[in-house]
Amino acid sequence: QVQLVESGGGLVQSGGSLRLSCAASGITFRIYGMAWYRQAPGKQRELVARITRIGSTNYADSVKGRFTISRDNPKNTVYLQMNSLKPEDTAVYYCNSDGTLPWGQGTQVTVSS
User: Fold this and answer.
1) Residue 22: is it exposed, middle or buried by C-beta count within 10 angstroms (0-12/13-18/19+)?
2) DSSP H/E element including 5
């Protein structure tokens, strides 16, 4: 069955870095555009970054210049490198393909000031 498993979150100080991973199974990963989303307490889930099948990327204005999305098709994995983290980046982070796949459990990112 289709499964997305996010990992790499944690507690980090403001200005720090984290690298998130999302391993996909049960799909032909290389044909999917993938994206990272996040949901902070009391807020709606929002799009953070997207990468197409051929590697084109786009980002939410709030993370441009700080976050980088990438993918490794042979490993069925999409990554999110997060630098210069801010307290407002605190959220549960998820990967998906425009919400067309079953959501994983997400990975918690907490940035302390």
Assistant:
1) buried
2) strand 3-7
Q: Which two tokens stand for residue 54?
A: 């051929």
pLDDT at position 28 is 94
Tell me the two tokens of residue 21. Answer: 């991973």
Rg (CA), the chain: 13
Model pLDDT, residue 56: 98
Structure tokens at 64: 């441009």
Listed residue (67, 1, 70, 76) closest to 38, CA to CA: 67
What is the rounded distance in angstroms from the CA atom of residue 10 to the CA atom of residue 34? 22
Q: Show the tokens assigned to 104.
A: 């994983």
Whole-number pLDDT of residue 80: 98
- How much is the pLDDT for 81? 98
* DSSP for residue 56: -
Which stretches in the chain have pLDDT values below 70? Answer: none
C-alpha span between 52 and 67 (Å, rounded): 16
